[in-house]
């Protein structure tokens, strides 16, 4: 009788285990569907917030499914149970370090936050690979052919995750302007030296990875320092890849590092046999790769040229308002700018990073409302790489409740500049530089730009005559129809607002 009861209990346990396994699979399918649906929402400003919440819900479901899967398999040969203390501790640390910066970070610093969070993801993947190496005793415990994917996935994740982590830290430091300007110029100038070093480091990393993988067939574990050496070499390579890349290319670099983090996460998921990490990593890797390619095209530069070429040393341009070619700038006042715009039929606002730095988006919205009340049509021209990350200007303007329909992408707005009375450029440099279209010797020649120079009149708001990311002079500032309104962008717009109210 006791034997019968035990057999019945075993059968019942097996049915529960199998049923829970099907439930885990179903939860993963729901999570993956929410990932994809949420990503679709990120294609437009109107649905972006909702898309984020949908994808976050999917990730929450994936975490629950993973914990249920581990609980279901606990007790099987080689499968450890759940250490709830470590899980709760990890969640607490993640919440404490993640939520406060996300809530307090200003939109001007959002690219830095994205770079930092992306780097943390890559570093986590590298640590997972290290843990897998230690747990499997140098991969010797899983060296049979069926588990080769664990070894390959772990080593790939170790290299790419470490590159992404350290490269993202450099991107963060550059965006946060933590690096000395002279040092940054020297790093950009030493691009060829870094390229050679990276080739050597890449060969060394691949050789060590092959050695670790081949050694897994032996009875003795590979000494632990080999995996540490692999992580260190990959980390140095991540530093050396981003060090010489200039500010003009930094938005593309952020996107590229994001794609690398996704690919490394997918590789780690392959090693851990975790479907959530595989699918989420591939989605991030694929979308990041597509975005990187689109942004490179928007700059008319190939990805290898961005990674290995590097330009953007922060040259200050001609002194005292004088261009290298001898042209001079024409300064204007808030009163004159207000009069020009108040009597225009159409005004196009061209936002750039200067708008973000000055936090002038709300003032710009108020200025536009005053102009529209006077019968002036106001539109916003958005360049794909304006700001320091994709969609930076869209998010800033949306924060100020600018209508989504008023934000026009470059291809949609460029045909309207030649029938626009006034174009007002707020802190944008390289994306309005006509040298990209007219000067074959320019480093940005061929880069698609906003045709601001075709407007009847152009007003440029800038603090000084310093150049943009690319470190080159902008002939637009010295053009016949251009006038400069110097000063902090928000204060300048506020002054224009007061003048508009007085008209």
UniProtKB/TrEMBL annotation:
Gene Ontology molecular functions: NADP binding; proton-translocating NAD(P)+ transhydrogenase activity
Compartments where found: Cell inner membrane
Pfam families reported in the protein's UniProt record: PNTB
Topology with respect to the bilayer: Multi-pass membrane protein
Cellular component terms (Gene Ontology): plasma membrane
InterPro entries from the UniProt entry: DHS-like_NAD/FAD-binding_dom, NADH_DH_b, PNTB-like
Transmembrane segments: 20-40, 52-70, 82-101, 113-131, 151-173, 194-212, 224-245, 252-272, 278-296
Enzyme kind, highest EC tier: translocase
Family: Belongs to the PNT beta subunit family.
Annotated PANTHER family: NAD(P) TRANSHYDROGENASE SUBUNIT BETA
Purpose of the protein: The transhydrogenation between NADH and NADP is coupled to respiration and ATP hydrolysis and functions as a proton pump across the membrane.
Name of the molecule in the record: NAD(P) transhydrogenase subunit beta
Lineage of producing organism: Bacteria, Bacillati, Actinomycetota, Actinomycetes, Mycobacteriales
Gene: pntB
